[in-house]
Amino acid sequence: MSKLRMALLGFAVVLGAALVSGQAGAGPELPAGLMQAKATTACTECHEARIIVQQRLSKAAWTKEVDKMTKWGAVVDPQDRDALIDYLSTHFSVDKPAYLADRLVSVGAKKRQR
Amino acid sequence: MISRRNFLKGASGMALAVPAFYPLLGWAAGEADVLMQGKDGLIVRSSRFLDLETPVEYFNTWLTPAEHFFVRNHMHEPSTLDPALWKLSIGGEVKKPYSLSLAELSQVASHAVVNTLECAGNGRAFHNPKVPGVQWEKGAVSTGRFSGPRLGEILERAGVKPTGKHVMFRGLDEIPGKVPAFIRSIPIEKALEGDTLVATHLNGAPLPKHNGFPARTLVPGWIGAASCKWLTEIKVLDKEFEGNFMSPGYRMPNQPVKPGEAVRPEDTHPVTALNVKSLIVSPSEGTVRSRPLNIQGVAWAGEADVVGVEVSADGGTSWQAAELGNEKAHYAWRLWNFKWKPAKAGDYVIASRATDSQGRVQPAAPVWNPSGYLNNAVDQVKIHVQA
Fold first, then answer.
1. What does R_g of chain B's alpha carbons equal in angstroms?
2. Whose CA is closest to B330, among B149, B117, B143, B115?
3. Domain over B87-270 is classified CATH 3.30.750.24
């Protein structure tokens, strides 16, 4: 095994450990829009944006979700509620193409290949 | 065009090490890959909270290796967990409440159960209209040999009072904001069954952290949510636990409803045992060169036994019996195999359909419900057979 290869593998292992403690990186961001910053603050305090961007819901369903999450501690100014629902139901509506999920890098495969 | 992921599949070990940097450089759906120690190649439905789906092609063994075992977390995992300080308390409607250290728990006789664990929301992504929640496709399910003390023995040491009707479990998961704690309960009868465990091991090794180390309940044949991870408290109650994850969470309509229809809470019941289901593991969707083919898969039925799997190569018009694998256990899936020789080149829809000992058969289409639970529709894979 070359030194470069060993160094890269070593870095990958260190990064892997860092991602475990930090729960695997930052994940996707919410799309640009008037409510991007407020949605990010309200939602990603507890969970990453990925759980939002995979949904394909009607406005009625987004309304229920926003109200449930507000009850569960998401900080949403009452005057922002409707705009937040509009933002989510515009970007993540039923007619949007399916979300394509990421895969974990196959650490075990690397070990087996060495 | 070759995608980054396809490139990775054929890449050398050195090339594989490099893409681990990508999460630091930014993410693009479907392209970025994540590295996580102890879990290998899984699909990231969410990384905070951690929800990892097993790719169906990994289900080619009876037991799912720990690194391929799916993960479903409702909350944050315990940020600190020292096994030397860990305690399990047993209380509520019992005569002698007590607690156990991990060392003391390991002194209690261990029992092993091979169980297919499936998230109630597995297959949610295929409901139409879509319903909110983790958009699991096919792989929020895995099979493992769980071992540890029988829950019944742990309870009997405390002496369950006649008033004890339900058993509640609390884990060490960390709850953000005002989110209700992930606490659920099971009926005392199920808790006292000989195969219901306080599991400490998966496939002969201590439970991985993401799967509940150092101890979890294993409620065999039931939805994964019944089996509490990072277990720290067992409490016997005089009635079902009242909390969000018992109601309105994890409930199904008593009667079939039209897709999209609202359901009143009083017209629902708790989701408990899994239903009958099968998956096609091989071939994967795409082009197939070799023929004849071995069509292979898995089939399970919760508390019932799989009695047969049928395969269709014409989209469900005609069906033929598959051969069931020899490995079996009451709560575990069966591997199955069907030898098929395509009559000619072309496009085919391969389908699988399991039947169980209760006479249940997989439906042709998902049975829609507001939370997208228990989707056990006939599995289908589209393939193209080359000449």
1. 22
2. B115
3. no
Q: Which residue of B has its CA nearest to A43?
A: B177
* HSE (side-chain half, CA atoms, 13 Å) at A22: 14
pLDDT one-digit tens code per residue, B82-103: 999 999 999 999 999 999 999 9
pLDDT at B263 exceeding the cut of 90: yes
Q: Which chain B residues touch A105 with a CB distance below 8 Å? A: 8, 16, 19-20, 33-35, 41
- Domain ranges for chain B: 1-28, 87-270, 277-385
pTM of the model: 0.88
Cβ of A71 within 8 Å of Cβ of B42? The answer is no
- Residue B38, phi-psi category: left (phi > 0), alpha (psi -120 to 50), beta (remainder): left
pLDDT tens digits, one per residue of B158-216: 999 999 999 999 999 999 989 999 999 999 999 999 999 999 999 999 999 999 999 99
Q: What is the mean pLDDT of residues A18-38?
A: 72
Burial class (CB in 10 A: 0-12, 13-18, 19+), B107: exposed
Structure tokens at B50: 């951690």
> Is B7 an interface residue toward A (CB < 8 Å)?
no
- Reported as a pLDDT band with limits 50, 70 and 90, residue B20 is very low
Has residue A8 been placed in a domain?
no
ipTM for this model: 0.87
Q: Which amino acid is at B38?
A: G
At residue B12, φ and ψ (nearest 5 deg) are: -75, 170
Phi/psi at A109 (5° precision):
-60, -40
For CA atoms B330, B335, B371, B231, give the dihedral sign. Answer: positive
